[in-house]
Amino acid sequence: MSEDRAPLLVLGLGDRLLTDDGFGLVLLAKLRRIHGEDPGIEFMDGGTLGAALLGELEGRRGILILDTVAGGQPGEVMRVNDPLARSSSQGVGAYGTSASLLLGAASLVDWLPERVVVIGATPLVSKTGVGLSIPLRMALPPTLELAQETLAELRAAVESDRPVASTAASSSSTRYVR
């Protein structure tokens, strides 16, 4: 690991050419604009690279993944506090298992930090096309707010070397319904 690597990674996942699958990347761009250059946070567009991103997790102290999340109604905002605890049928990303495979591989090689949270919303559709469906466009403001709050929690936890407060909750997922 590079010594100048930021302790926090904000990783956007998805494919902008598959409508709602690009949600994590749209969210990443908005969060990056808000935070600008911050030496403590690296914002990365992981696209659909999946397990090829494994080396980017090494040495991190916290990771916030922005992606679509299966298991809710279209547009439902979700925070997954313990993504590895979700059953394989639920997965983390709604399309494929790139986030689940990446986190599983990181766990196997002991590169998964203690603090990992996934923020996203349940998609309506994934088909060739650019732009988000109406439910996901409507979910952007509350999801962005939740991502900002979660990033602040992660930063405080990393700086004070303590667990993220919300990860101690009994449920691995929290749903935020508009």
Keywords:
globular, 178 residues, single chain, 6-stranded mixed beta sheet, alpha/beta, Rossmann fold
What is this structure, in a nutshell?
This protein has helices at 23-35, 54-57, 98-108, 134-160, and strands at 8-13, 41-47, 62-68, 77-80, 115-121, 173-176. With 178 residues, the chain is of the alpha/beta class.
Structural description of this entry:
- The chain is α/β, with parallel strands linked by helices and 178 residues long.
- The protein has one domain: HybD-like (Rossmann fold).
- Helix content is 31%, strand content 20%.
- The chain has helices at 23-35, 54-57, 98-108, 134-160, and strands at residues 8-13, 41-47, 62-68, 77-80, 115-121, 173-176.
- It has a 6-stranded mixed β-sheet, covered by helices on one side.
- Helix 1 (23-35) links the parallel strand 1 (8-13) and strand 2 (41-47).
- Helix 1 (23-35) packs across helix 4.
- Mean pLDDT is 82; it is low at 87-91 and 167-171.
